[in-house]
Structure prediction request, 254 residues.
Amino acid sequence: MPKVAQFDAPPLASLCPQTMVELFEQLPEVAFFAKDALGRYTAVNASLLRRTGLRERRDLLGKTVRDVFPPDLAARFDAQDAEVLRSGRPVRDQLELHWYTDRQRGWCLTTKFPLRDPRGAITGLVGISRDVRPPGETPAVPAAVAHAVAWLQENYPSPLTAASLAAQAHLSPGRFARITKRLFALSPQQMITQTRLQAAAALLESGPSSIADIALACGFADHSAFTRAFKTALGSTPSQHRAQHRATARPLPS
Prediction:
């Protein structure tokens, strides 16, 4: 099996791709994959193989999502991969349509991290997609929640409440809160704050906008509220986060 670069995270730094494959073989509800810088699969577990309907790993290794998935799914997966490879920013628990076993469509939470070589250059990515199947719920409930999440990702700068988010799923606030807590371990208000903070972090890393402008653009009441929420969630102030990102993004001297 082709080799891929190792994780940045210290606890996983010594794990080779095959070890990670064997680890995720124990979780049939989780699809595991590693890809190179061109988006080609270099390691997959049996769950991903079953989802694609292929029989052998060699039928999937070396292929891209456009070789395997239908155009609508492939375009979204490919754009997501390209952004991780370009920016180095991970994707965490992105709710999206994927395939369950034998190409049955279902909702998954997808996480992707860039892979880097010892000099910090991005050489590929690694990720998982885990099934969203809340016990006792019908398939319509995850779809309704997914609609609300997608709406939130477009409307997070607007004034929002937990109740207004629940209304997008056509659920009572209490029921919506119970489902989001079970699916994401987050309350609706925490989902709103997390979405705003993720958008703010991307703006801090990608452009010169002032902290105050970013706060307002992402739905925070003012600079102070934004700074408090950001530091609580990420452990650094917006200014510190921007400075740290710029320092790590600089190319290393040759």
